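Submission sheet (multi-component)
Chains listed below:
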Amino acid sequence: MQTVLSIAIDALAYGMVLFVISIGLSVTMGLMRVVNLAHGAFAMIGGYIASYAARDLGLAYGFAILLAVFGTILIAIPIERLLYRRIYGAPELTQVLMTIGITFCIIGIANYVFGPTLKTVPLPAQLQGSVDLGFRAIATHRLFAILCGLAVALALWYAIERTAFGVKLRASVDNAAMAAALGVRTQIVYAVSFAVAVGLAAFGGVVGAELLPVEPYYALRYMVTFLVVVSVGGAGSIPGALAACLLLGGIDTTGRYLMPEFGEFFFYLAVIAIICVFPRGLAGRTKG
Amino acid sequence: MSMTTTNEMIGQTPVRRRFGASDLIGLGVIVALAIVGYFLFPNNLALLTRIIAIALLVLSLDLVTGYCGVATLGHAALFGAGAYAAGIVSAHYGINDPIAMLAFGIAAGAVAGLLCGAVILRAHGLPQLVLSIALIHLFHEFANKASSWTGGSDGLSGIAPSALLGLYEFDLWGRTAYVFGVVLLVLVFAILRLIVRSPFGMLCRAIKEDPVRIRSMGASPKAALMKMYVISGAVAGVGGALNAISTQVVGLDSLSFTMSAESLVMLVLGGTGSLFGALTGTIVFMFFEDVVSAANPFHWLTMVGALLIAVVLFAPKGLYGTAADFLSRRREAK
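Outcome: structure written.
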């Protein structure tokens, strides 16, 4: 029973971190149809900035998170203007190559600037230690990650389903040309969602730094995981992404606990099985 | 848009004789380059042999990506299967004849091709890409865990190929391996030229352009793509077996995601949808890598990234495609 509970908590925390990072990827992929392999690199940049701010500059944790999110968005804006603009609507192979190129560049530069060692984001005193839930104590940081995931999911749901911007966003996802004809400025919708996606990636990178340690190959190592989440969940669907994150987080964590030797093996096997059964993702829609 | 590209394609490749003068010139260029390489780098034949092995992998990737339009980031699975099969029959079963090892490599590559094709061709677009990535990781994990067979992360050693045809020993300088590699490359290249020109090859190109139309014409896109995948697996198997025979060791890196991604980079650098493009890309990339990565492996990654971005932005047809375009435009202008 103890093992089951700790697996469940770890799986939930891991799944939520995955969700925070990859939901941005899912939305931009559904909106702009760009296969963005560099998404993990933005999460990594967020982690590096937070680590630099909190450890070397001694700033508070919350302030480090803010700095990471806005710093990463600032870095991403010129990349979007100069490089991503040119591959909207291009064939998939072109998009894959361009974004892999960006990933490689970011890895090389991160390694040059910060060195190959693992960077930590020091936690504030409030998030260290554990919380007693009455029947069981869990690490506060895990609880914090889970709450962050829930908050992001709720906020996104509200923004997309209940606000005017959400209406424009959904219209652009469904039919960009028609939305533009009806007066929605799709360029602005694209730019805002890209910025939000990158910001969320950075946020997830900082919050999840304990679970997905920040190092130069972060972008390459977890790139696969994020892509898997999006394609299993179905691009552009928040419930789908949430379900995919919890499912894959569960499979991965259970595999690591029960069969540490073959953990990765079962993870990829499960991915192949899921995609073969649901080629368009759990919540996927047919292309309109 | 697909109409114009189809017309362009037909315009570019008029129906020619089975094996025309351009093929002979191409083969001549390969042999000439091989001889020049032999005399320019007599102390670095191992690198040249590795280039040939990788060139076979890139050719095989070109078959599925360039000719069939299947985006895959897991093609090293076929290469690694060939390499491990050739290595395992030598190290564990004492089959040391290079030709027999090659045959096992080809067979294993083809089987891996069948397996990967069956999985990857089930989906399109992003899910297809993710499937290919999951497959290469699965193969990698499998080889890592089956360490009694594959040597795990230490690599498979104890491969001792006997003399080629009973006459030519594999020497320390790698001369025999190099000549063996060149002969294999020329043979494979000639066969592939025939295949991509054949009605079957044209069918595959047509599927890349418009699968719905092909289905309504009565052909099965899936069957044709599976066939191409198996052929591609056999070609990659030749490359893997050549690598195992020449280096006498097989490492996990031959089944890695990095290897798959790099082979895709080479293909795009040279130009997709053309066998010469695949060869050009491999040679340029490998020499570049040899020079730069000797200086600093991390700058190497940045350079590859910048190179990729530059190719996508400025030469989307690759080096060979851009050069060929330039030449044909000049010819028209005259």
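Remark: The longest strand of chain A covers residues 130-132.
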